[in-house]
Design a protein that fits this description.
The structure holds 2 protein chains of 2 kinds.
Chain A lengths: L6 E12 L2 E12 L3 E5 L6 H8 L7 E6 L2 E2 L3 H5 L2 E4 L11 H11 L4 H14 L15 H12 L6 E5 L7 H18 L2 E5 L3 H7 L2 E6 L2 E7 H5 L6 E5 L5 H9 L4 E6 L6 E6 L9 H11 L6 E4 L4 H8 L6
Parallel strand pairs in A: 3-8, 3-9, 6-7, 7-8
Antiparallel strand pairs in A: 1-2, 1-4, 4-5, 9-10, 11-13, 11-14, 12-13
Helix pairs in contact in A: 3-4
Chain B lengths: L15 H15 L2 H22 L8 H27 L1 H5 L3 H5 L5 H13 L1 H17 L4 H30 L3 H29 L5 H9 L1 H14 L4 H26 L18
Classes of the chains: A alpha/beta, B mainly alpha.
């Protein structure tokens, strides 16, 4: 088995309850080295509890997990092998970037000089080397996230947990940070767990995905596998506002179309539901579009519903918080 | 040391408590928290001394009593500073969201607590150094100065770790700094107010003091310290009559430090309170 196929985190049946409320009901999944796993779920689904258990901050009520083959019963050894960027983390006011990383390097058992040289390398890796001697309190939000990632890498972890790393960043900042996260997984052969509410970013960078709802896994696997699990006989078409009514009439006339409606939350989009039998017909999409083209209705955009992670997420987590 | 060596046990690294201690010390003194409190302390002590030296009514107090009052003020306010620094040490990090990062490292919770504790005691030597010139000036060369220097230093040095420890114990249990500060101040008042009352009673009617009030003073570390300072500085009592009053200030820090380091420290967790202990997690 190559390094990239090695299971670096294995969780089996993790359960946690806060009083009578079950926060986790049997969480089981595997993360392999060099892979990026998107950890998704609506608010209250149990993501934070899962991360806190897997990072040894909290103990599970039952179940078991290993990191790099080490049982969760040895949390101090696990902490040596994981790196974590919590969702909200504070930075000391009186430290410079390099002092901050040196401090954490020392806490991981490095000598001061070694911790400093590793700190400088990490600052370079996250693009902060020019601000190494600036106080961290003067860093922008994006820089704070970057130094947080650098801190998570200070012990060369085999598993990295990143909880909402792009929250509050502008689109460019998000893109740059995600590039950095991908680089961490690829170059360091670390397994990365990325918690995020931005489903498009998970879809674009993650290899695997776990979707939680009410403390249970409702979908897991590779991103493409999970996307493929949702219904495929619905499509969305965007047409100019003035052609909406005409387009709806034309589409309703197609025999394989069951229902035509305005797509909720997407102005200008029409949602087209097809008969169950239509999913077997590989030409159905072409025929629907052809109908609109023949009626000279401009098609601004087209996409099959269920073709996005967001669709899967909304479909699977519609039950809300139990 | 290669990158992956950080996953294994350290060899040349400093002990964690020392790393945490230096960082905390720097945070407190360069960050200005302890420095600001010492500055206020210095101003208060200056005003207090000035009043003793210049106020016509206060000047009527016997010199020894004047020295006693300034020593008590210096010691008790110094203890308060240690208490406040201790009370901020854990709950403050919780509020500033810096505790989680620390708990995610493979360091022993006990060592983290020891580092923070030593740093919380650090204002006391500075407070003592600031106070000594005031004691010297006010004593005007009286024999009380010697007692003030010896017993003031000893009482402060014994009780400062105890009060820093109490502040930390409260801080470990509290989720917010506000609660931690309020509870700590409450504990401080609970200890200092009866001691001041007993102190006054002792000053005025020490010969009629009942066994009960003596016992009450003895079990309260502040009361015992108060009585010891009174008997040594004002009454010039020999050591044979003082040792009993030194036992509580001696035992109190031992108990607080033992509870902090042996029971509470290893269970330090992200949320307020103490985690059920498991040998592998400490």
């Amino acid at each position: 088995m190559s390094d990239h196929e090695k299971a670096v985190l294995v969780a089996e049946g993790l359960q946690k309850a806060y009083g009578p409320r079950a926060a986790l009901r049997g969480l089981s999944f595997t993360l392999r080295a060099g892979r990026l796993l998107g950890f998704l779920g609506p608010n209250g689904a149990g993501k934070t509890t899962s991360i806190r258990i897997l990072t040894t901050i909290m103990e599970p009520d039952s179940g078991h997990f290993t990191v790099d083959g080490i049982s969760h019963k040895h949390p101090d050894q696990i902490r040596r092998r994981i790196g974590v960027l919590p969702e909200s983390f504070g930075l000391p006011k009186q430290m410079t970037g390099i002092e901050y990383l040196t401090y954490f390097g020392q806490l991981y058992g490095r000598s001061k000089s070694d911790a400093k040289s590793v700190g400088m390398e990490l600052l370079e890796e996250v693009g902060l080397h020019k601000r190494a001697r600036s106080l961290v309190s003067t860093y922008s939000h994006g820089m704070r996230q970057r130094i947080g990632i650098a801190r998570a890498l200070v012990n060369d972890p085999v598993v990295v947990f990143l909880d909402e790393p792009t929250i509050g960043l502008d689109p460019r900042g998000q893109q740059e940070l995600l590039g950095l996260v991908q680089q961490v997984a690829e170059e360091r052969a670390a397994g990365v767990i990325l918690c995020s509410h931005l489903l498009s970013e998970v879809e674009s960078v993650c290899d695997d995905v776990v979707i939680l709802s009410s403390g249970e896994i409702v979908a897991s696997g590779t991103v493409s596998d999970v996307i493929g699990k949702t219904e495929q006989n619905v499509m969305r078409i965007r047409v100019p506002a003035e052609s909406l009514e005409e387009a709806q009439r034309e589409l309703e006339a197609i025999p394989a179309v069951r229902k035509v409606s305005a797509a909720s939350g997407m102005p200008g989009w029409i949602r087209v539901e097809l008969d169950d039998a239509a999913s077997e017909d590989h030409q159905i999409n072409n025929r629907v579009l052809e109908t609109l083209l023949r009626a000279e209705i401009p098609i601004l955009s087209f996409e099959p519903e269920g073709g996005r992670l967001q669709d899967v997420f909304l479909q699977l987590t519609s039950g809300g918080i139990k | 040391m290669s990158a992956s060596d950080a996953r294994t046990a350290p060899s040349r690294a400093s002990p964690v408590w020392r790393i945490v201690f230096w960082r905390e010390l720097r945070d407190q003194w360069f960050g200005g928290k302890a420095l600001a409190m010492i500055l206020i302390y210095t101003i208060l002590l200056g005003i207090y001394s000035y009043l003793f030296a210049s106020n016509s009514e206060l000047q009527l107090l016997p010199l020894k009593q004047m020295v006693l009052e300034i020593v008590k003020a210096a010691v008790f306010v110094g203890l308060f500073i240690c208490l406040i620094v201790g009370a901020d040490s854990v709950s403050g990090e919780r509020e500033r969201a810096t505790l989680e990062g620390l708990l995610l490292t493979p360091t022993s919770r006990r060592q983290i607590v020891v580092g923070k504790f030593l740093s919380a005691v650090s204002p006391w030597p500075v407070a003592l150094a600031v106070a000594i010139p005031y004691w010297v000036v006010l004593s005007k060369g009286d024999v009380a100065l010697g007692h003030a220097l010896v017993w003031g230093s000893i009482m402060g040095t014994l009780l400062a770790p105890a009060f820093a420890g109490i502040g930390m114990l409260v801080s470990v249990w509290c989720n917010t700094n506000k609660t931690s500060m309020l509870v700590s101040i409450g504990v401080y008042l609970l200890l200092i107010l009866p001691s001041q009352y007993s102190g006054l009673a002792t000053v005025t009617t020490s010969t009629q003091a009942t066994d009960f009030s003596n016992l009450f003073q003895l079990v309260n570390p502040m009361g015992a310290a108060n009585r010891l300072l009174h008997d040594s500085i004002q009454l010039n009592a020999p050591f044979g009559q003082l040792w009993l009053w030194a036992t509580t200030p001696l035992l109190f820090p031992v108990i607080v430090i033992a509870v902090l380091c042996l029971f509470v420290g290893p269970g330090l967790q992200l949320e307020g309170g103490v985690r059920r202990l498991r040998t592998t997690s400490v």
